[in-house]
Amino acid sequence: MSEEKNQNLKWYIVQSYAGQEKTVANNIKQRIKANNLEDKMPEVLVPTKEKVVVKSGKKKKVEEKIFPGYILIQMEMNDNTSRVVKNTQGVTGFVGTNRKPTPLNEKKVKGIMAYMEVKQPSFQTSFEVNDAVKVTDGPFKDFMGTISEINPDKGQVKVLLTVFGRETPIVLDFLQVTKL
User: Quick one: 26 exposed, middle or buried, by C-beta within 10 A (0-12, 13-18, 19+)?
Assistant: First the structure.
């Protein structure tokens, strides 16, 4: 019996107001529980990825939404389950064709899940190539230079510094430089 039920469970995309995905997902979960539909709607997910943001010289981990304005729901689609989702405050509708919710391809769902699990946080910064910067830490402290490359995956910049009258490329951490 449970195998049969599992075959009816598919992943659907629900559209919500951007910035309210978590609240709307929690509202959906509460409505599922109130209607005793946990077996027909086992999972509600806001796909996020951990990211490191550098602000005011400090690293901070933030959860970034992979698909802003969208929530994934694993559910058995029928009039009752559909109504529970559609009548949830903040839900603007299902994503689909011809006004009919279209289930996501299972491979795509697995790909999204795998992407969410990758633990290498990427850095987000406001630096751009050719920005004038001042080194704030390390052996080149107080040197001025220009960014020639940015490596967001490592949280580093390559800065051209004038050392002994020569322009020298130096790789520095985002935290070691500040914009002028």
Answer: middle
Question: Whose CA is closest to 7, among 114, 106, 102?
Answer: 106
Cα separations in angstroms, 166 against 145, 149, 159, 162: 12, 18, 13, 5
The 10s digit of each residue's pLDDT in 103-142 is 998 898 888 888 888 765 566 678 889 999 999 888 899 9
CA 76, 46, 29, 96 dihedral sign is: negative
Residue partners of 129: CB distance under 8 A and separation at least 6:
147, 148, 149, 150
Residue type, 177: V
- Assessment of whether the complete model's pTM goes beyond 0.70: no
